Amino acid sequence: MTARIIDGKAFAEDLRGRIAGHVNRLKTDHQLTPGLAVVIVGHDPASQVYVTNKARQTAEVGMHSEKYELPETTSEAELLGLITRLNADPKIHGILVQLPLPAQIDPTRVILAIAPEKDVDCFTPGSVGRLAIGLPGPVSCTPLGCLMLLRNEFESMAGLDAVVIGRSNLVGKPMAQLLLRENCTVTMAHSRTRDLAEVVRRADIVVAAVGRAKMIAGEWIKPGATVIDVGINRIDAPEKGPGKTRLVGDVDFEGAKAVAGAITPVPGGVGPMTIACLLANTVTTASLINGLTPPRDLTA
Ligand SMILES: Nc1nc2c(c(=O)[nH]1)N[C@@H](CN(C=O)c1ccc(C(=O)N[C@@H](CCC(=O)O)C(=O)O)cc1)CN2
What residues does NADP(+) bind to (predicted)? Predict the structure, then answer.
């Protein structure tokens, strides 16, 4: 079997088109322009690419976009000061502070400083709690992107065995919540899991979010399984020339492609969905802040 490749880039483009339609309706029917502020501290090259794309795509769907680039030496107090200003700014309905942050800044303090109603990352305790009990509100961007890709693959996921590899607050934990909501039987695997290969072999759905290049071997995958690869790892690519690099996921793509039913590539899989879902979350928070019902069909 050769797996079908799930085209996250095309899916994200379609989602952005639908978001633009909603933004247009909010503007004409409610005189409301959703606004997103993205904040980056330092000059990690990958983070800079993501933040630039976030700010550009925000503007492209017709939203108000603000980008703050702070120097590597920024103190925690300075960053908290900016967040306080953005919390109070009526033009801004979503605040995203790009992670990771430099060592002198405590990410937990920063996350807790973001007004819960503007938390488009779904990182604050209230948002995490709302997600856990199924209340309306933003859903963590990468897991939401994975869920949308999965929903497109299955009429129903009820009763399927799903394994989430990685237990981060950013991806693993919210992903497991979302799969539970779909009535999957969910296993969370992590660095202490005994016999990971065996756990993966049982799964109809594999979500890999460990951050280690090609860690999930092709022969671990159950024939016909759907594989969602969240990993974005840069490795040396001497075949492309001296000093060249390329991106790979957490799954051995070639090996898994030979047995899986469907698989996301890296790049072009989950990554573009993360940004599109951030824009969808901003429409959600802008709607909720203004007493409007957030559009359900966007991320259904
Ligand atoms: N505050 C947050 N920080 C971070 C998040 C997040 O959701 N919120 N997620 C990750 C990184 N991330 C978003 O910021 C992200 C990663 C990858 C992509 C993406 O489009 N990847 C492309 C490849 C891009 C490249 O060439 O490097 C792809 O996979 O096709 C978008 C967003 C960490 N921080």
Answer: 166-168, 232
Query: Both tokens of residue 200?
Result: 């993966």
Q: Helix 8-30 and helix 141-153: axis angle, to 10°?
A: 110
pTM greater than 0.95: yes
Residue with tokens 């899916």: 11
Q: Whose CA is nearest to atom 19 of ligand 1?
A: 271
Q: Is 143 in the pocket of ligand 1 (CB under 6 A)?
A: no
Ligand 1 atom closest to Cα of 268? 30
The partner residues of 161 in beta bridges, in order of sequence, read: 185
For the chain, domain boundaries: 30-120, 141-272
Q: Which CATH class is domain 30-120?
A: alpha beta
Confidence at residue 296, expressed as pLDDT on a 0 to 100 scale: 85
Kindly provide the ipTM of the predicted complex, given to two decimals.
Answer: 0.96
Annotated binding-site residue numbers for NADP(+): 166-168, 232
Whether omega before 138 lies within 30 degrees of 0, making that bond cis, reads no
Closest ligand 1 atom to residue 8 Cα is: 30
How far does the chain reach from its first CA to its final CA, in angstroms?
Answer: 30
Asked if the domains at 30-120 and 141-272 fall in one CATH topology, the answer is yes
Residues annotated as catalytic (active site), given as ranges: 54, 98, 121
For position 284, what pLDDT does the model report? 96
pLDDT value at residue 75 = 98
pLDDT (tens digit per residue) in 77-89 = 999 999 999 999 9
Which ligand 1 atom is at minimum distance from the Cα of 142? 7
141-272: CATH topology: Rossmann fold (3.40.50)
Ligand 1 contact, 10 CB (< 6 A)? no
pLDDT for residue 1 is more than 90: no
Handedness of CA 54, 60, 65, 70 (dihedral sign): positive
CA of 1 to the centre of ligand 1 (A): 30
CA atoms within 13 A on the CB side of 111: 18
How many whole angstroms from 29 Cα to the centroid of ligand 1? Answer: 33
E strand or H helix that includes residue 5: strand 4-5
